[in-house]
């Protein structure tokens, strides 16, 4: 019973959307601006760095808190499994928040917060892959999806326990699902590209300019 309450509490915790809570202090609904997504990327594009930083801290924090609550209070019999289920519950709450009409963000920051507490090395691998993909392509959504599948690959390569591998499969395909609109726009060649992040392209162009 306690374990079920923990999962329900983690879902409710996940339903507290950082961008929507902070948006109320500004008198805005971020879902009506930019891409319409209640996540950190749209917060950055429409409201600036400081607002986006606050959003990310809240969303990462609730993932970490969900993992901590499960590690601290779950039954010993489920201690290996429940923390990952709790993090997934928080991510689901972020994507489909009960407090905000079931319209939330895409879950990446909350996921990172939870995994950061449960398996820090996996987060390091995901961040490295995300940065490489972003700096090469300039596409945030694509980079997040690739990082999600990198987490799955990391779990398989290091022969993680079965419950972690199942969690990794769910993570990879949930990231693909929540970023499906990005993938569609990418296929149609009208996805927003963060050109300033493409440092290797800029370096190559600068090198070519100097060599001419």
What can you tell me about this protein's structure?
The chain has helices at 2-14, 18-26, 40-47, 49-73, 82-95, 108-118, 120-137, 140-157, 162-178, 180-187, 199-211. It has two domains: 1-106, no CATH class; 119-203. The chain is globular. The termini are far apart. With 212 residues, it is mainly alpha-helical. The longest helix is centred in the N-terminal third of the chain and has 25 residues, at 49-73.
Short description:
The chain has helices at residues 2-14, 18-26, 40-47, 49-73, 82-95, 108-118, 120-137, 140-157, 162-178, 180-187, 199-211. With 212 residues, it is an all-alpha fold. It folds into two domains: 1-106, no CATH class; 119-203.
Radius of gyration from the alpha-carbon trace, in angstroms? 18 Å
Sheet/helix structural class: mainly alpha
Number of strands: 0
Cα separation of the termini: 71 Å
Q: What is the average per-residue confidence, as pLDDT, rounded to a whole number?
A: 91
Gross morphology: globular
| Largest sheet entry | none
Helix content: over 70%
Number of helices: 11
* Low-confidence runs of at least 5 consecutive residues: none
- The total tally of domains equals 2
Order of helices and strands: HHHHHHHHHHH
Please indicate the percent range of residues in DSSP E strands (runs of 2 or more).
under 5%
């Amino acid at each position: 019973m306690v374990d079920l309450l923990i999962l329900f509490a983690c879902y409710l915790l996940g339903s507290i959307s950082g961008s929507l809570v902070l948006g109320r202090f500004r008198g805005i609904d971020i879902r009506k601006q930019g891409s319409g997504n209640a996540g950190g990327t749209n917060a950055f594009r429409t409201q600036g760095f400081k607002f986006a930083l606050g959003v990310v801290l809240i969303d990462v924090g609730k993932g970490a808190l969900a993992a901590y609550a499960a590690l601290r209070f779950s039954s010993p019999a489920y201690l290996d499994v429940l923390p990952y289920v709790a993090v997934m519950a928080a991510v689901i709450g972020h994507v489909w928040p009960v407090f905000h009409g079931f319209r939330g963000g895409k879950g990446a920051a909350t996921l990172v917060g939870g995994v950061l507490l449960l398996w820090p090395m996996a987060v390091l691998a995901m961040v490295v892959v995300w940065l490489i993909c972003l700096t090469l392509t300039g596409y945030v959504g694509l980079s997040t999806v690739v990082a999600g599948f990198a987490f799955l690959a990391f779990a398989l390569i290091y022969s993680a326990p079965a419950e972690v591998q199942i969690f990794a499969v769910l993570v990879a395909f949930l990231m693909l699902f929540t970023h499906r609109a990005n993938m569609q726009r990418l296929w149609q060649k009208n996805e927003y590209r963060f050109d300033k992040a493409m440092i290797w392209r800029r370096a190559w162009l600068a090198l070519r300019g100097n060599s001419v």
